[in-house]
TrEMBL record:
Biological process terms in GO annotation: bacterial-type flagellum organization
Annotated InterPro entries: FlgD, FlgD/Vpr_Ig-like, FLgD_Tudor
Domain of life of the native organism: Bacteria
Domain FlgD Tudor-like: from-to ranges: 36-177
Function as written in the Swiss-Prot or TrEMBL entry: Required for flagellar hook formation. May act as a scaffolding protein.
Cytoplasm found in the keyword field: no
Stretches assigned to the FlgD/Vpr Ig-like domain: 68-138
One Pfam family in the UniProt entry: FlgD
UniProt protein name: Basal-body rod modification protein FlgD
Keyword entries, A-Z: Bacterial flagellum biogenesis
Source organism of the structure: Escherichia coli
Family affiliation: Belongs to the FlgD family.
Keyword match Membrane: no
Amino acid sequence: MENNELTSQLAQISTVSGIEKLNTTLGSISGQIDNSQSLQASNLIGHGVMIPGTTILAGTGSEEGAVTTTTPFGVELQQAADKVTATITDKNGAVVRTIDIGELTAGVHSFTWDGTLTDGSTAPNGSYNVAISASNGGTQLVAQPLQFALVQGVIRGNNGNTLDLGTYGTTTLDEVRQII
């Protein structure tokens, strides 16, 4: 074997060994990042998040004259709108309230419904849906409705962390538009 061949083979062995060590180190770093992300996600337990969806829950206390409480809802706009309207419907699809929100900038915005119907009466306890329409200069815009959900846990899986939202199922951290 020639000197230069031996030197070349030693260099290749050294390179392979270095790559194996690098892979081991990267695997360790990746595991540490996963653990860190799980720890950060666990800080969301007990907090509300806004995710894509249309559900609003309404309920009143048991006391006479109790105030109706509703879960927040929201909208994500890719561009500013000069007219935004929220239409709230009951489980049968009947419109129970229309709210003129007005102008909004691009981004995520959250709102609360006071639980009153168009006629001024209090909405019955239950689940409602919201549809958002947005326009600018008469041109319809894409308006992603957002619903509120309470984070009840974090599930670690092969594809990363998912948030357990109880009756709303699960969602990924990518879907969270706002933390409340």
